[in-house]
Amino acid sequence: MRIGVNTFQLHKRITGAGRFTKNLLLAISKLDRENEYVIFLRNDNARYYSIKRDNFSNVVCPVSNLIRFKRVIAEHFLLPKMAKEHKIDLFWSPSDIAPLRLPCLSTVTIHDVKRFVMPQEFPFLERHYFRMFIKKTVRAANLIFTVSESSGRDIVKYLGVPPERIIVAHNALDPALAEEEGVPFDTLKRIHGIGGKYILFVGHMIRSKNVPRMLRVFSRCKAAEDYEFVLLGQPAAGMHEIEQTIRREPQSSSLKERVHHVKWAPTEHLVSFYKNASALFYASLYEGFGFPLIEAMAHGLPIITSDSSSMPEVAGDAALIVNPTDEDAMSKALERILTDEETRQTLSMRGLERVKLFSWENTAKKYLAVFDRLNKNL
Question: What predicted TM-score, i.e. pTM, was given to this entire model?
Answer without folding.
Answer: 0.94
